[in-house]
Write a structure and sequence with these properties.
Order of helices and strands: HHHHHHHHHEEHEEEEEHHHHHH
Number of domains: 5
Largest sheet: 5 strands, antiparallel
CATH topology of the largest domain: Cytochrome Bc1 Complex, Chain D, domain 2
Strand content: 5-15%
Radius of gyration: 29 Å
CATH architecture of the largest domain: Orthogonal Bundle
Number of helices: 16
Strand order of the largest sheet: 6-5-4-3-7
Structural class: alpha+beta
Helix content: 40-55%
Number of strands: 7
Distance between the termini: 68 Å
Length: 464
């Protein structure tokens, strides 16, 4: 064999090895800087092969391999996953903690010791210990013979959140096993195990889910007639209504959305991911029906000098109360100066109760449509944190795809964008999660999670 043929054969082998090596590099998820050197080696080897192996065959081989290389790169971006990513057990305190602080929406209303800042619901520090030492006896004294353990109390709080409301708080907690939160039975078990760590020993065998939770999971479609509006709303028009401080709704004067507005009433970003459409509608048309717990309890005091101070109760101690009025101004009042005090339900919400007169039917529908828009921070990011960051964090992201924040999601991978705003059918992140091919090495997203991604993209993939 001549020297020229030998060199040519070696070039062929080297080119094939370069191709295979690059494919392997893509699939084993190397660091981005290492993948770049693989690509450079791949292209340089083909240049050498083309120089040493002249003729039409070289061009066909190089072109075909380059096309294959590009295809595999895209394929690896969409379908690939870290070979080191192991599927975590779905029912354990760690999984429950992730759900509590993300998709389960618990942290919207509750805190855990010093972690979190929500005050609408009780702080869950030592919640299982309190259930064992105090709540259990209270529930049994009320005739609830089915509540035999602290874990039974925790399950009841999720299955029937209005069955017992801690003193000082208002009802209104959603049933998280129904839409829009839609936790599965195993996810609820995981959350309960996380709550068990607060004063008790985690024990999955002690968790007996109620029939409501089990039946909700079995149901293919909702058994209750769903609340709907007779008029379709325009989210863009609703957004204008919300942020127009001089308009008929003027929501922005008391509420915040995506960081804009005044913090007099509750934050409304992603409210549709926690509460039902009917609840949101009722809160607009009849704000006294249910008052958000925490820092939103209406109060009105008459001082001894006849001054009347209406607002919401923001803070209280043995000597003073702090009242925030509808303009956002806080006033600290000495209790010794108070002649008369009224609290909810003896005093109404400071939110106007005449929106039925101020707004047209179409304006109400527009406002509802805006508030129903999916929120990236409330609806999508928790899914990514729980399901995707094992392969797509800042540490050696697979195929250069980071899913750590809005900007990285919209940037996409080394190969292609994964979100096409307004078109979920052209967005790889939706296509792959809906088909169950992503996340890799773990269970597929459930229907509610896939729907959340779909709805967010359909809404234009807003950064809210």
């Amino acid at each position: 064999m001549s020297r020229k043929k030998t060199i040519t054969r070696l070039a062929h082998i080297l080119a094939v090895l370069a191709c295979l090596g690059t494919f392997v590099a893509l699939l084993i998820n190397p660091p981005t800087f290492l993948l770049l050197w693989w690509i450079i080696w791949f292209l340089a080897t083909f240049a050498l092969a083309a120089f040493l192996w002249s003729g039409r065959q070289t061009m066909v081989f190089v072109s075909a391999t380059l096309v294959t290389f590009a295809f595999v790169g895209v394929w690896a971006t969409i379908f690939g996953g870290s070979g080191q990513a192991a599927m975590a057990e779905s029912v354990n305190p760690e999984a429950g903690e992730a759900l509590y602080w993300s998709r389960g929406k618990c942290s919207t209303c509750h805190s855990m010791g010093d972690r979190g800042s929500a005050t609408r619901g009780p702080n869950h520090e030592n919640v299982c210990g309190k259930a064992r030492d105090q709540r259990l006896a209270e529930r049994q004294a009320a005739g609830e013979t089915g509540i035999q353990t602290a874990t039974d109390y925790l399950v009841e709080s999720i299955a029937q959140p209005d069955a017992y409301v801690v003193e000082g708080y208002s009802p209104g907690m959603p049933k998280v096993y129904l839409r829009p939160v839609s936790l599965t039975p195993d996810e609820i078990r995981a959350v309960v195990m996380y709550l068990q760590t607060q004063g008790c020993e985690p024990d999955a065998t002690a968790i007996n889910l109620s029939s409501e939770i089990i039946e909700a999971a079995r149901a293919e479609a909702p058994t209750e007639e769903q609340f709907t509006l007779v008029v379709s709303g325009d989210p863009a028009a609703g957004q204008v209504l919300f942020f127009d401080a001089e308009g008929p709704a003027a929501c922005v004067k008391c509420h915040t959305y995506a960081g804009e507005g005044e913090e007099v009433g509750p934050e409304l970003t992603g409210v549709a991911s926690v509460q039902t459409l009917e609840y949101i509608f009722e809160s607009i048309m009849d704000p006294n029906a249910q008052i958000a717990a925490g820092d939103y309890e209406p109060i009105q005091v008459r001082l001894k000098d006849k001054t009347i101070l209406p607002g919401i109760l923001r803070d209280e101690d043995d000597a003073t109360v702090t009242i925030k009025d509808k303009e956002g101004i806080e006033t600290v009042v000495d209790k010794s100066d108070i002649d008369r005090e009224l609290r909810y339900p003896d005093v109404p919400s400071i939110m106007p109760d005449n929106f039925g007169e101020l707004l047209t039917v179409k304006q109400v529908a527009d406002l509802m449509a805006f508030l129903q828009q999916p929120s990236f921070q409330q609806d999508v990011m928790p899914i990514l944190v729980q399901q995707c960051l094992r392969c797509h964090s800042d540490d050696a992201p697979h195929s250069g795809l980071r899913l750590t924040d809005y900007e990285s999601v919209m940037k996409g991978s080394l190969w292609l964008p994964i979100v096409q705003p307004g078109v979920p059918e052209d967005s790889p992140i939706y296509l792959m999660t809906s088909k169950g091919t992503m996340p890799a090495e773990s269970e597929p997203l459930n229907k509610a999670e896939v729907q959340a991604i779909h709805d967010w993209i359909t809404a234009g993939a807003p950064n809210n």
